[in-house]
Sequence to fold (452 residues):
Amino acid sequence: MLYRKISSRIEEYLKSDSSRILMVEGARQIGKSYIIRHIGQRLFKNFIELNMEEDKLKDRIFAEAKTIEDFYMALSVVAGDRMKDKHSTLVFIDEIQAYEHLLTLVKFLKQDDKFTYIASGSLLGVTLRKTQSVPMGSLEIAPMYPMDFEEFLIANGMGQLAIDNLRHAFLNRTALNEAMHNKMLDFFKKYLIIGGMPKAVQTFVDTKNINKIRSVQKEIHELYKADCTKYEEELNKKLKIRRIYDMIPSMLENKKKRMIFKDIEDKKWKRSADYEEEFEYLISAGVVLEDKAVSTPTYPLIQNSSKNLIKLYMNDVGILSGIYYKNNINAIMNDDKSTNLGALYETVVAQELAAHDFKLFYYDNKKKGEIDFLIDDVENLSNIPLEVKSGKDYTVHSALDSFMVNPDYNIRQGFVLSNERHIYTKDNMTYIPIYLIMCFHNESEEQTVYLD
Fold:
């Protein structure tokens, strides 16, 4: 079984007597159902799994279950004599977003307290945005993402001691020895190829066959294309959402990597405001990560972010590398000088930061240039710049140099991430190997969000 960090959060909830229903939210194919099923079957004698997407396509037993009595009646058709008491019976409502009325009903199911409940949703963000009667105070939403780099390492046999040594190296700014560095860099490059989709990772662990891995990624990519417009009824919006999603790989190949709004419909007068709903749909669906521009980087960053200049990253670097390089892995594994890997390196950093509870921001200033990522520095009420370098010129960063010395910004530290082994600090700028992005965690953010 693949290790997932969120499993401890799920188990803690199922062992508690919470007054809320936990909903695990995230894109499809990231392993939500698998991990809930695994833990639920272990902890509860009677495990009842309901997939509402399947129900909607087939029997529609729960389509009109808008009262708790209706729900129990429908549940009895599926579960039979497995409906016991709260402590022995877990009802797992998978793909709950298929029926909007269930998002309202969960409040009353929890109040009735007949069974233990847990739910998941793959397009939950989209449905919650459209649902007017979400019961405040009864939902506890836990975001879930594709496997991060640490989970990938564990899946490939790396033990806790080795991972602790990586954290020690990061905290104490001490470089790994050359052999260990090369091993970690090899793992990191493989992560660029395989990404964090559990099925792709398991295929790699089992077969090491790039053809089979790419086949899995292509299947998920096609599924995401279909999901992009699943809950949008207006045809014109469907087309624009799909167009934006399809544009992301080519946009990331541009120098600035920003979304060019006029290219979406080939209309020069179009601006970001014309596509706010389409962007929000993709972001809420979990298939893309939003990176907002900040021109005045004062704390907190969210107060100074702009929707006019945004970057969109795919939610999985493995899918992106499959689009770019198909079955040819040499460009990534051998550091091909003729290949610009900047889009992959930025995507994997975005993916790691998002998985570790950071909101994504970047610095953009017409006169002073651009910095790849900014994260809030809560301790100093400032922010920390992160510059991502995929090539050998990792010490060249004029925009970052200017940013660091600006007295108005109160910057205490910055990081440059590259393939270089050595860790050192110069002028408050710390150079670290890019795989140590796994050590950045947002301690100021809660793991879950309560709808109060």
